[in-house]
Amino acid sequence: MKRLRIMARHDSVIAMALLFVAGTSWLILNGGALVWACVPIGIGLQLLNEYNIHRHLFHLKPPRNQMFFNLLYRAHYGHHDFPTCEKLLFVPIWFALPMAGVNFALVYGVASLLGLPAAPVAVAVVLVGGVGMFLAYEWFHMTAHMNARKTAAERRVTQLHAQHHFRDFSKWFHVSPGGEIIDKALGTAIDRDSLRQQSRIEFITTLGLRPDDPRLLKARARFAQMAGLSAQDLQRAAQMPATAHKTN
């Protein structure tokens, strides 16, 4: 119940849950067997979507422009900077809803070209399969950052996601159960033994940026109130680790 209450505090989760309920209700009233069979396609496509967005968009090279840096910080960099901050944990609504709209339009267009019932297929693939899998992602991602009793699947996700955060942020981009196969197929999986032999990644929680990088300082200040970060939190985040090698 605690985790459900946490999710219910975030507008992006609420909005996506409403889309899922609307899509599922529509399918129950109007969808045939062929349309319902499209739901698993949406689940698979969302797993790919999750991986590609995380790897290729959320882990973009840090922009020089502060406005773009701030957007990326709010979308994902800030979560690495403050991994346990609830307000930076969930995908923001200004990203989640447009992505759902883009996905719906793409699936609608492809279904039309293939001569399939475009609207029902798009509802099944995007609003039910895709959005349902997105909500599962948010659940497992939240759980990975919580000290709570976990199922076997949740423990596995937590183990691999911790490696992404604290051992090598260029590996293990999946979070949802089943996404592990995508990391393995695309070469971004790494086992524990390999991680032990790998050189330490400097400034790992800031994705390679110096903790006192001016862009980080400005972004932290920009979102401090929204995220509930204190002046002490910001000060600690900007401190160089004692073992860090300073570079120009």
From TrEMBL:
The Fatty acid hydroxylase domain, residue ranges: 42-188
Signal sequence segment: none
GO BP of this protein: lipid biosynthetic process
InterPro entries assigned to the protein according to its UniProt record, in alphabetical order: Fatty_acid_hydroxylase
Transmembrane segments: 12-28, 88-111, 117-140
Gene Ontology terms for molecular function: iron ion binding; oxidoreductase activity
Record keywords: Membrane, Transmembrane, Transmembrane helix
Pfam families noted in UniProt: FA_hydroxylase (PF04116)
Top-level taxonomic group: Bacteria
Name by which UniProt lists this protein: Fatty acid hydroxylase
Record lineage: Bacteria, Pseudomonadati, Pseudomonadota, Alphaproteobacteria, Rhodobacterales
